[in-house]
Structure formats: C-alpha cells, structure tokens
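Consider this one:
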Amino acid sequence: MKKILSGTLLALGILFLGVTGSQAEAAQTSGTKNLKLNSTYKNYDVTGDGISDQLLITNDSQDEDHYEGINIFINDKKVYSKDLYYYRANLKLCTLENGQVYLFINPIMENDDSIVNGLFQYQESSGKLKRVVNLNKYYTYSYHCWTDKIKVSGNCILAKNSLMSYTVAGMDLSYITYTYQEGSLVMKDQTVKAKVWNSILDLETYTIDEDAGLITKRVLTTYKKAGGKKKSVKIPKGATVYVDRWYESGKKAYIRIKYGNKKGWIKMVKSEEKSPFTNASYAG
C-alpha cells in the first residue's frame, strides 16, 4: 500500500512539475522586453515554439566609447552575425498576442544611424535569424534615419521613426504599424502622422523652432492625393506651411502640407538642393 501511495505521489509530482513548467513557458505575455548586450536570457521563447530558449547577444570587442561586431546566439548556436561599429545597441524582444516572436535589433552609430535597424525572426528552415522588416528603408529620401520607439499592440508592432530628410530636414513619423497577416508582418497604413522638428525660426540668428513652419522657396503646386494628378492648392513663394502626414508606396514617398485651411501633397525629393523650402535645418 505504501509503495502504491508513494508511486502515485511521485506521478502526481511529475505531472505537477510538467504543468507548472508549461505555465512558466506560456507566461511570456505580449509586449516588449528590453535586452542588453552580453546578458544571457533563459526564460523567453525566441524561436516561436512555445518553449523557453537561451538567448545571448554579444559584441566582438569593446573600446572606451564604442563596440565592434554583433553576434546573436540562440540555444548556444550562432544565428546572426554582423561586422559593424556602434556606440550603443537598442535591443528588444517583441512578442505578439498570437505568440509570434521578433527581435528588434538596432546597433546605433554616429548621428543615431544604424546599418542593421530592423525586426528579425527566427527561421526554423535555416536555423538563422532573418530581417523581416527593414526600418532603414528611408535612406532614399534622407541621409540619416533611426527608430525612436518600438511597441507591441495585439498582433501589431508599431515603430516611431525619425529622419533627416532632404525635403524638410528633421521629421518624425509615428506610428508606422506592421500587422501580422498570413505569416508576415505587413505595413497596415501607407499614411501616418508626420511632424517637422528642425525648422529655422530666424534665418539671421539660426534659431531652431519645431513649430516655426517651413517657408516655400518657390511656388508649389500640391495635389489632392499622394501621387495623384488632380491639383489641390497652389502655394505662393515665401508662404509658411506645415507638414502633417507622410505617405509611402514602394520606393515613393510624399508629404501633405497645410497652408492656412488648405492641404495638398508633394513628392519627397532626393537631395537638399531640390528642397522647396528655405529654412529646413540640416544636421549631421
């Protein structure tokens, strides 16, 4: 009787451990988790199979003010490596409500630039990490771009991006939303809020004011839709305008500008010389 009872208790103990173990693995709730270089994490599912993995992100070498190289290990296997130079690293584990897991990898260089900046996901077929969202795609219309914030909402990852654009200089885009659909992260809306923060208030003293507005260098023809042909308002030279929206489609990008109570779209340019504004303050 004692043997039967002790065997039953042992079986119940094993069952209890199994249940609590699976509960611990399932306790990884949706949201973001800040990660640090050279720290080992053992309580998070990184591969998307619901089982806790061991995650380690290292650098190759370190000087007084910078790092060189970045390596990512999952369960002691190197799944990503990049030779680069950076001052700090913004690293996050992003878990969606449906259990999909992504790593936000952003080693930050001078002027907040990053060569890597993106969302990565483990690929079971290759055993490697793959960048599935490139957050550095704005270099076509800017010479600096970076990601200020990353957050999770349901099955979406939201990114606040900033860029030093050729058209208007410094501007924020918030939030660009990537929604999980049919196995991929897809940009939800092509139009997001935009704000210029590097306009010159006084050209003589070079005073910067994010609320100063932009002064047109020439007559500007705007359009009712981004990329459309139907004209909206014609803005005179020397007028003050404000940017409130950004639109992107493929490699094309547009901004919506406000002139008084009227609004219209213009295309982003690819060099400072082509900027239609006199007081865009470029930096870096």
